[in-house]
Specification:
The chain has 130 residues and is mainly beta. It is 0% helix and 52% strand.
Length: 130
């Protein structure tokens, strides 16, 4: 059974960088052909996909967040991480890491669909406030 656990600060000041880590157990993040995403849910809103890192380390980002988002991984620790720069209160949300069981790419661009996600972390609340 694959398990994902998010970790990181629950409070970030405006203009700073939000950093979260997802630790995966019960399966390797380098196993073909899974992909690993960060997804968030602002209060009162739906899920928003932020970006993904594939089993091969290839990354893809939401166009609306691409300029501020970076996803990386540490294969020795079986972890992948999110960095979101220049945060504002609008970035306040519950942040989830999750596994895409059958990622799809079109012309090299990742196509997000929540239906393909089979394992999720419990989520971590991040509040952006001074």
């Amino acid at each position: 059974q694959v398990q994902l656990q998010e970790s990181g600060p629950g409070l970030v000041k405006p203009s700073q960088t939000l950093s979260l880590t997802c630790t995966v157990s019960g399966g390797s993040i380098t196993t073909s052909y899974y992909a690993w995403s960060w997804i968030r849910q602002p209060p009162g809103k739906g899920l928003e996909w932020m970006g993904v890192i594939g089993y091969d380390g290839r990354t893809s980002y939401s166009p609306s967040l691409k300029s501020r988002t970076s996803i990386s991984r540490d294969t020795s620790k079986n972890q992948f991480s999110l960095q979101l720069s220049s945060v504002t209160p609008e970035d306040t949300a519950v942040y989830y890491c999750a596994r895409d069981s059958s990622p799809e790419y079109y012309s090299g661009t990742y196509y997000y669909s929540p239906d393909r996600y089979d394992f999720w972390g419990q989520g971590t609340q991040v509040t952006v406030s001074s």
